[in-house]
Amino acid sequence: MAIKWVDELDLTGKKVFCRVDFNVPLDDKLQVTDDTRIRAALPTLHHILKAKGKLICGSHLGRPKGKPDPKLRMEPVGARLAELLGGDYRVLVTDEPVGDGARRVVQEMRDGDVVLLENLRFDPGEKKNDPAFCKELASMAEAYVNDAFGTAHRAHASTAGVAALVPIKGAGFLIKKEIEFLGKLLGEVDRPYAALLGGAKVSDKVKVLENLIPRVNILLIGGAMANTFIKARGGELGASKVEEDSLDAARKIMESAEKRGVELVLPVDALAAASLDAPEGTVVPADRVPAGQMALDVGPETRKLFGEKLRGARTIFWNGPLGVFEKKPFAAGTLDAARAVAESNAVSVVGGGDSVSAVKKSGFADRISHISTGGGASLEFVQGENLPGIAALEG
Prior knowledge:
The protein is an alpha/beta fold. The protein contains 15 helices and 15 strands.
């Protein structure tokens, strides 16, 4: 992969547009409630500043639908960034992503200034990868650094289009770490190699499953997507969520695993209840959920079985919770899986999204080898897709 990293670029005195992922949660008072993504970008930002680059950051925030939304402005993000960078730097937030005002702020930057562009998705040209919008962004910079892995699977202006218009380009330290760890899953690994996939939909992960089967030794499937596999084997799922139109896909995946000698492990018991708000669940066989009941978590025998497989693995990839972990009565399966991954001696990689939330909630995050910052991006990378935001940096 012919990509230059940020520490290989000559950024001295140059205006550097750094695409970051500052899509952070805000509370009702528009204060940042979780600055993990901002902190993750700091090594790259500090490097650019210490290299005497003039730093211009750009990110999206939420889903503003191509027009300004006062609840999704970057000002609170800029305030938190200023706190994290320390008193040596002044963060200036523009009042628009591009245009005369933004360009003027960039032109008038002084030493110690960091410019944070207004929410890039306030302009419809961002998601459309509009050439005119790309040109406006590129006109403000002499170098481009992408450190937003969470959006690398999107061919948007700031993640793909701009890279072709700026003479100097490269990837930040966060993307470098993502590529290194996720890339290991696609090459030679220590075995046994176990993949644990949960979440709601088989249809979202068919390509991932197809790409993993030739690589892994053990495939563990939990969450609502396990229901579809269990029904494909003739199980009764009551009122559980099942993707009827994915039953054939589930059968093909099971057949492929069997042909390749991959151990495919499904839940043997489940915690069932009549509603998501039930105070507790009842343990039932995973393939015999009573009518009117839903499988909302894996049961104790499954937690034990999955735990044994994970603790014995040498390489682990995990994406997706094993139950409705946001609800305390149905969180045990996911939290036990996090504990098992942490207690293994494996190189462990956890995909983004709900899996990351679950690992953090479990308290074992510091014992995971790598926690990806990109949900969709990490899945597409592992399924062998060419990510536009990465491909744009090549050459």
